[in-house]
Specification:
174 residues; alpha/beta; UDP N-Acetylglucosamine Acyltransferase, domain 1; seven-stranded mixed sheet; five-stranded parallel sheet; 3 helices; 17% helix
């Protein structure tokens, strides 16, 4: 996975990592509300890096969690999904709307290979001060530049330049 080469997602070692993530995320999603809101300890321990003053609203889902790097003051709203088969870098001050998805894995196009669990993972990089709208989808290998805005429901298949706003499916600059 880390080499951006084809691998089988059915590998027992990967299942062990996903199980660890499921347990931490379950604990996060079931914790009682805190005042003021804080990042749960199980989720903070699962992530590769988590800067100060981050908040991930429940419910949340990640496939591994251990590839997620959060800068300072990152806010991830409820019902977000991060399929972090590769590194996911989220910069300082970024806000992610409810129901947004960040996806690193791409399944094989050949049906026989897909049935064997073959996929490839590409990193997603999200710069500082980015705003990703509700229900947006960021696809494998995409980079969102500093201050970019992704409109609600957009499907981002290509890099977005610094300060650029994109909308639609596939996402295009406004």
């Amino acid at each position: 996975m880390a080499a951006a080469a084809w691998y089988s997602c059915l590998d027992p070692e990967l299942e062990t990592l996903r199980g660890r993530a499921r347990r931490a995320i379950h604990a996060h999603n079931r914790q009682p509300p805190a005042e003021p809101a804080t990042m749960s300890a199980p989720l903070r321990a699962l992530f590769a890096a988590c800067g100060p003053d981050c908040l991930v609203e429940a419910p949340f889902h990640a496939s591994y969690g251990c590839h997620i790097h959060l800068g300072a003051r990152v806010y991830i709203n409820a019902n977000c999904v991060i399929l972090d088969s590769a590194r996911v870098e989220i910069g300082d001050g970024t806000m992610i709307g409810t129901g947004a998805q960040i996806i690193c894995a791409q399944h094989h196009k050949d049906p026989a290979e897909r049935a064997r669990g073959m996929e490839i993972a590409l990193p997603v990089t999200i710069g500082s001060d980015v705003w990703i709208g509700a229900g947006a989808i960021v696809m494998p290998g995409v980079t969102l530049g500093r201050g970019a805005i992704v409109g609600a429901g957009a499907v981002v298949t290509r890099d977005v330049a610094e300060g650029q706003t994109v909308v639609g499916a596939p996402a295009r600059p406004l």
